[in-house]
Every structure is written in C-alpha cells, then in structure tokens.
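Hi F.,

I've been meaning to write this up properly since the lab meeting, where we talked about keeping a consistent format for the predictions we share between groups. The idea is simple: the sequence comes first, exactly as it goes in, then the structure tokens exactly as they come out, then a line or two of notes. No screenshots and no reformatting. I'm using this chain as the first example so we have something concrete to point to.
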Amino acid sequence: MRGASFVAQTRMSPMSAGLAGVSNRPPRAAGAQFRPGPSPLPAMKPTRVLAKIGGESGTKSALEFVTFPIDAVAELRPHALGVTYWFDAPQTKGPHEVVLRLTGRRLDVAGDRKPEDNFVTTASLHDVRPGSGRTSLTHRVVGKAPGRWHVIAEAVAVPKGGGQSEAVRLPSAEGVGRSTFAPVASARAPGVIVGAWPAMVLLGVVLALVLQRVLAQRHGLPSGNVLVLALVASALGAVGAKLYYRVTHRKASGGRGLAGLSVQGFVIAATATFVIGGALAGLPVWHLLDATVPALLLGQTVGRLGCLMGGCCVGVPTGSRWAVWSSDRRVGTRRIPVQLMESAAAATLALVTGAIAWQGSITPTGVLFVGSVAAYVVVRQLLFPLRGVPRATRHGRQVTLIVSLTTLVGMLLVSSLA
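Output, unedited:
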C-alpha cells in the first residue's frame, strides 16, 4: 500500500508528494554521518559483449553520483548534482511508467540550513517494458549549494492503464556523493564517454581527407587545391549543420556548442562549397564530387560510432536479443543499435564507391556522387523510425524517401545506359 500511496501523491503533485515524504522522516543533526545503504540490485547474469561495453554490467550500486576524474575541472563553478538510479525492469505485465523520487540533504552545513541545502525532486520514465533488463535513470539537480550530499531514492513502477494497487515498488537506495561542475553533470551518464563524439568526428574528418587526397590524385586533380577546398568545406559544413538543426528544430531546447548538429546540413553546405569553390578554382566539379563521396561516407562511418559512445542519435528501447545497451545521457537501457546500423551502411557504401572511384574517371561524371548520396539518404530515412528522437516534420520523411529513391533509380538507369 505504501507504493500505491506514493503513486497517488506523485501524480497529484510531484513536489508536494516528495515534501510529504520528507516530513515523515525524522530530522537528523547537521553534522551527522550518513552511510549509504547496501545495493539492492542482484548480480548481473553474463551479458553480451556489446552490453558490457555499453555499461549495463558496470554498476556496483543502485545509486551512483556523476563524477569527474580531474579535480581541477570538477571544482569549477557552477555546480550541479548528477544522480543515477539503477533498477531492473519489472517482469509483470507491462509496459510500466517508472516514477523516481530523490530526496537530498547537503552535509557539512555550518549554521542554519537554507533552501539550497535540501531538495526533493521527481523524474519519470515512460514505457519501461518487461525484458528490457537493467536500466539507469540519471537526473540532474541544479541551483543547489555545492558540496557533499546524502540522497535517498524511492521508485515505483505503474502498469499503463493499471490501478494503484498494481503498482510495483522498486528497491529504495541511498548514497553519499559530491556535486560537480554543471556541464560535466549534464554530459556524463553510465555508458556515455564524454568527448567521444567530437573525437570520433575529428578522426573521421582526418581519414576522409586522406582518402580524398588519394582519390583526387587518382582522378588527376591537384591534391593541394583539393585539400584546401576540403578544409573550407568541412568548416562551412559544420556551420551549415548547426543552422540546419536550428531551422528544423525551432522548438527544441539546448543545442549549445557542438550539440545539435545535422548531417543533412553538413552535406548541403559542404557540397555547395565544393561546387562553388571548385568552379572558381577551375576544377572539374563533377570529377571532384565523384572523388569526394567515398571520403564523405567514410567520415560518416566513423562519426556514427562517436554517436553511440557519446549518447546521441540513440535507437528506441527494445527487449530484442539484438539490442545494445546504450544511453541518451538520461536513460541507459537496451536499444536498437541504430548508430551501428547507419555506420555499417555508410561503410558499405564507402567501400563500393571507393572501389568505383579508384578506377578513375566515371562516365557520365557526377553519377557516382548523386547516386551515392541518394542511397545514403534512403538508408537514413529507413532508419529514422528506429531512432528515439521524434521527427520535426509530419511528412518530411516520406517526401525525402520518395525523392531519394527516385533519384537513386534514375542514376542507376543513367549509369547502365552510359
């Protein structure tokens, strides 16, 4: 019945429900020492290799705090508290909605306690399905005083469409941890490697430049001029990726810094740069594009691996045996490995187009570039429904898929008749 009461309180008013829970707890002295309770999680069964890499089996406690190994960075201001609660998906008939309540109290407080020394907050996770395995839910608390915190986590799982009596109370947990630099708290989570995405994108760019140089020489293009043009195209492509994302996601929040970049915007801006820059430099534009597309696909191959490690462009949760445990920086669970699927598709196209481009001049010129880009767009549109990010437009995917398929078929016909 306590779980049902918690559900009712949370649904009425999450904050008032949490405060009611705190009022039932006996007060503790400001200087009291807190000891985290034992982890209620059972030992993990042997997990698949990709699940281990993703972080599913890496937890030792049901409640963990976001930390950073470099003290000089962790102590920068402003501070925030990142808390991760681990649980095993209920095996009862689902799906479930998991409601988590976190109650925090700052330790080592000198003098009277202030509002920034305490917090009660809730977080929810919808559509938790039986068989999805061990799941992590990371919540960030901002606007509080930095320092050591004692946090208690309480959670219930409510079957969708079920009553309060069917609520499943998940194991409670408590722990002591420190706040950290706010950008670190917002970026780190189980299964997420901070800096992996920009590092892999940079590696992809370097490998793409090397491959483009080789193919440019094979096509009789001046490699020095092509390299300069490629560097400019990469820079302008990054700007285009940012602008494209902002235009198509006007209602989305965030997107600061390197976050919120669109592949479509990069391809459009980079291609325009090659066309305009190549024409101004007196280069055969279509030859240039044919020699460039394998490099572009190679960059996408490597960059998508960074998405998997960095917690972006994630797939939808699933209980499939082919699932890979990964995180979107908030929820870590078994998902469709859509980043790996797109990376594999880009790698396949890079190998095929690279082999064709290695033969030298393609007749008619430009067919390789247009056909390859169309094929990659087709793959992306087919994978979009498997991603955990909702589409920004209602019919954009269908229109793009039809146009790209038509273009691909047209390029295959032109190539076969040449």
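Notes:
The longest helix spans residues 223-248.
The longest strand covers residues 148-159.

If this format works for you, I'll send the rest the same way.

G.
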